[in-house]
Amino acid sequence: MASARAADTPEDEPPPGRSAEGPPSIEDELVGLDPDDPETRAFAEHLDRMQRQQPAFTVEGYLAGVANFADSANRAGGLRRQTAVLVVVLILLGVGVSVWFGLGEIVATFFD
């Protein structure tokens, strides 16, 4: 059974407040702002990053997530940047320790 609400709205019409092309573009969000203003450009870049859809469970998605983390760490300053550097160092330390113990097991297995 179809609901009365679904019968009232045709499938080809967009919901109210949206255009037929999809979500509003960044230019629509920045109407009336100076495009040469650095703060406006930064806000437009922020909106672009927020609206970008990336694949989540693919290699490309994971690499894009790492790239986003690196870009955010490069833009950050002070304590946030130090925290990002600490996170990266701890991850690399964990990978290094795991590789060290793995190689130790391999060497012990072959030469023991």
Could you characterize what this model shows?
- The chain has helices at 4-8, 26-29, 38-51, 59-75, 79-111.
- The longest helix is centred in the C-terminal third of the chain and has 33 residues, at 79-111.
- The chain is built from five helices and no strands.
- By secondary structure, the chain is mainly α.
- The protein is elongated and about 75 Å long.
Overall mean pLDDT: 77
Range of helix content: 55-70%
Discrete helix count: 5
Structural class of the secondary elements? mainly alpha
Order of helices and strands: HHHHH
What is the CA-CA span between the terminal residues? Answer: 72 Å
Shape estimate:
elongated
Q: What percent of residues are in strands? A: under 5%
Low-confidence stretches: 14-20
| Radius of gyration from the alpha-carbon trace, in angstroms | 24 Å
Biggest sheet record: none
Write down how many β-strands occur, each being a DSSP E stretch of 2 or more residues: 0
In short, what is this structure?
With 112 residues, this protein is an all-alpha fold. The protein has 5 helices and no strands.
Q: Any chance you could write out the topology, listing elements then pairs?
A:
Elements: H1 4-8, H2 26-29, H3 38-51, H4 59-75, H5 79-111
Helix pairs in contact: 4-5
